[in-house]
Design brief:
Elements lengths: L13 E2 L2 E2 L18 E9 L6 H20 L6 E9 L4 H13 L3 E5 L4 H13 L3 E4 L6 H4 L15 E3 L4 H15 L4 E6 L3 H17 L2 E7 L8 H10 L3 E5 L2 H13 L6 E3 L6 H7 L7 E5 L10 H10 L9 H20 L9 H10 L2 E4 L2 E4 L11 E7 L2 E8 L4
Parallel strand pairs: 3-4, 3-5, 5-6, 6-7, 8-9, 8-10, 10-11, 11-12
Antiparallel strand pairs: 1-2, 12-15, 13-14, 15-16
Helix pairs in contact: 1-11, 2-3, 5-6, 8-9, 11-12
Length: 409
């Protein structure tokens, strides 16, 4: 996997007859002189190196594309958008450091990311204290928007500056359970997770729904995400009599785990969430992984009429890395920030106000537009109003969509 150093991407285009370049930091986010225009930075936080870098680079590139197109269209008069990306390496501590860096740069009026829910937990308060908007294209843990007691009947939004364009595991886990039990006719599951915020939460919501439907949990196990030898867990899976494995976690572990399960003689599919929906899962699981399933947020980007232009523009831009599972959502997250900035500028006589960050957070709450992934808007918790999900099957050498819909809860 390609290793990359910290990348800061710039989309600088001509506004009027003047070439605009990145302006220096401004104490209050106000405009520079009329002659030079104003540069607004959209930050991106994602794993740009390491095992999950393919997903992170897809996020970064997709936001970059949104900024470039906004500049080309002169979408916000007098504003040039610039993208700066920081590498969190999928580590909460790095994410928190990155959040602090973004807050310190007063030209940053919104941040897209992160990929991992555990990283988001470490960033939310930093951003909220600074009234800096954060829009994640990938976080699915329900507690991030609805509080830790979201499943106990008390939903409370912890941070008003946090939004996401992806739906949550409160829907994704049960959606997978319904497909496996009702459509795939799987009745006995072995559940494994990586003990991380995303994986454990997803496995829990899946398990609750699968049992509610009448399915049996043949066994549960946790793995160490830092290892690739899953022999002990594989032995338990094989002896359990399960007809399917559900894995809460990400593709770097899911791929080898699937391969090892099949090689043990247990010819049963491994099923996971959007964390395994990557071309890299196919590489890691090999031919043994054929027949495995993954759920992912939204409908397949390639099948949406609204996404055709995005796919064509992404390819035309010549990015070396694929947009991956979260490309469409990243583009829409970036564009949501752009729309919010436009609202703020239009409401302030064509200029950014001194409290631009707080105003952008307020504007995001009422943003509504037709995006790559469908209608983009946010509910009272900052969650996406688009609740669609898709089940994919690994067939041949690719993920193939087999069913799209919403959770019938």
């Amino acid at each position: 996997m390609r290793q990359r150093s910290l990348i800061a991407m710039t989309a600088t285009l001509t506004v009027g007859a003047l070439a605009l370049t990145a302006c220096g930091s401004r104490d209050k986010g106000g405009s520079d002189t009329e002659e030079s225009g104003t540069t607004v930075v959209i930050g991106v936080d994602a794993p740009l190196t390491g095992d999950l870098s393919s997903l992170g680079l897809g996020i970064k590139n997709s936001v970059d594309l949104a900024a470039k197109q906004a500049n080309t269209k002169k979408y916000v008069d007098g504003i040039t958008f610039k993208v700066e990306a920081l590498d969190d390496q999928a580590q909460p501590s790095s994410g928190q450091q990155n959040a602090t860096k973004f807050v310190a740069d007063k030209t940053v009026l919104g941040v897209v990311g992160p990929l991992n829910s555990s990283v988001a937990e470490s960033m939310q308060k930093v951003f909220d204290d600074a009234k800096l908007a954060e829009v994640s294209p990938a976080n699915t843990n329900p507690a991030l928007t609805q509080g830790t007691d979201w499943n106990g009947g008390t939903k409370a939004r912890p941070y008003k500056s946090y939004f996401r364009t992806a739906t949550t595991d409160a829907i994704q886990g049960p959606f997978a359970a319904q497909y496996l039990f009702n459509d795939a006719k799987k009745k006995k599951v072995f559940v494994i997770d990586d003990k991380k915020t995303y994986g454990a939460g997803l496995a829990a919501t899946f398990t609750a729904e699968f049992k509610k439907l009448g399915g049996t949990v043949a066994g549960t196990e946790h793995i160490n995400p830092d290892t690739k030898d899953f022999g002990a867990v594989v032995t338990k899976v094989k002896s359990s009599g399960a007809d399917v494995v559900y894995y809460g976690g990400e593709f770097p572990q899911a791929g080898p785990l699937s391969k090892q399960i099949k090689k043990s003689g247990a010819k049963i599919p491994l099923v996971g969430g959007d964390g395994i929906y990557s071309a890299d899962f196919i590489k890691l699981s090999g031919k043994e992984g054929e027949g495995d399933l993954a759920t992912s947020v939204g409908a397949p980007v390639e099948t949406l009429p609204s996404a055709k232009e995005f796919v064509a523009n992404y390819e035309a831009a010549g990015y070396k890395d694929a947009y991956e599972a979260y490309g469409g959502y990243s583009y829409d997250s970036g564009w949501a920030i752009i729309e919010a900035v436009k609202k703020v500028v239009d409401a302030n006589d064509g200029k950014l106000p001194d409290d631009a960050r707080a105003k952008v957070v307020e504007a995001l709450q009422t943003v509504s537009f037709d995006g790559v992934t469908g209608k983009v808007s946010f509910d009272e918790f900052g969650d996406a109003t688009n609740k669609q999900l898709t089940v994919y099957e690994y067939k041949g050498d690719a993920w193939v969509p087999v069913k799209s819909g919403t959770y019938a809860g």
